[in-house]
Design brief:
This protein is α/β, with parallel strands linked by helices. It has two domains: about 260 residues, 3-Layer(aba) Sandwich (Aminopeptidase); about 120 residues, Alpha-Beta Plaits. Helices cover about 30% and strands about 25% of the residues. It has nine helices and 16 strands. An eight-stranded mixed sheet has the order 1-2-4-3-5-16-6-15, with helices on both faces. The mean pLDDT is about 95. It comes from Antarcticimicrobium luteum. GO terms for molecular function: hydrolase activity; metal ion binding. Its cofactor is Mn(2+). Pfam families: Peptidase_M20.
Amino acid sequence: MFLTNEDMIELVAWRRKLHAMPELSGEEAETAREVRRALSATGPDRLIGDLGGHGLAAVYEGAEPGPTVMFRAELDGLAIEEVSDLPYRSQVPGRGHQCGHDGHMATLMALARGLSRKRPRRGRAVLMFQPAEENGAGAAAVVADPAFAAIKPDYAFAYHNMPGMPLGHVAVAEGPITCASRGMRIILTGRTAHASMPETGVSPVPAVLKLLPALGTLNGGMLPSPDFAMTTITHVGIGEPAFGISPGNGAVWLTLRSLTDSRMEALCLDAERLAAEVAAETGLGVEIEYDNVFADCSNDPEAVAYVRRALEAEAIPFDTGDLPLRGSEDFGGFGKDGSRIALFLLGSGENRPHLHNPDYDFPDDLIGIGARVFNRTLRDILG
C-alpha cells in the first residue's frame, strides 16, 4: 500500500475541508488556491495554473523518456443548498459538493503523495485539477489553453463516484460511456396586447402549446443504440406575471441527449427546424441559444485494458455495469484532442442518496480505492 494510515486521516480531513467550501463552475479561485497549497507540499517538478480558467496541473517527471499519463479531478461544486447535519457541511449558502468532486480531488491528492515519494521510472505523470465540469465548459477550455500543449497526455484517466452501485465496485467498458448533451433555449418573440384585446397582439402561447408535444417526437432509440435521442423539457416561460397583458414573448428550455456527437448534430438540426416551422405558423420570431454543451465520452480500448489490469491486481471487483449512461461528463473532451482516455465508475453504495441530491456526501472510503487504481495504472504504464 503506497498510502499510510496517517495519509488517509489527513486526506479525509482535507476532503471534508473542500466539502465545506464549494464554488461554482468558473468561480473556483479559492479551491484552486487550496489545491495549489496542498500540491506544493508534494514537490511536483512543475505546477501550471490558470488552465482553462482556474485549472491547475502538477507534473511529476520520470528519469527516462516515455509517455505522458494524466489523471483528472474536478474543482467545481453545484448551485444546490446542502441539507445535512454533517459537521463539515457546506458553509456557502446555496452551494454544495453534491456531485462528489471534493472526493475526486482528494483521490488525486493521494496519488500526489505517492508520487512525492516515488517518481515514475519514465515519462511523466500529470495530475489535472480541472475547472467547470458541471457546465461542460472545462475540459474544452483546458484543451484549448496554449499552456496545455506542453503537457498533452498520451493517456488520460478519471473516475466518477456512482450511488446505486455497491461500495468500491467498478463499472468500466470500451466505447461510449456517457452521452453528448446540450441545453437548448428556444426564444419566441411576438407582440404584447391588452388582455381584453389579445387579437391585437401576437402571443407565444399557441406556439408553446405546439412545441411541447412536438419536441417529444424527436426522441428515438434506446441505449446503447447509436440512434438514441432524448429531449427533456426543463423550463417554460411566457410573458410577465400580470393579469392585464397578453404575452408577447416566451421561451422553452430543453436538454438534448444522444449517444454520439454526430447524432447530436442531427438532433439539434431537427429541433431547430421544428422551432422555426412552429414560429412561422404562429407569426413569431425565433432565436436559438445553446448552453451546457457536453461532448460524448468514449473510452479507448487500450486505456481500458490498463484500468482492468489495475483492478485485477488490486483485487477490486468490476464489470461493465449499465454503461453507457444517459448522463454526461466533459472528460470526453480530452479524448477529442487525441489522448487515449478511460473513465470508470466507482460505486459509492447502493443505499446512498443520488448525485445532485441535497444530502449527498462522497464516501471517504473511496479515496483510497480510487487512488489504488490510479497508482497501479500509473505504475503499469510508466514504471
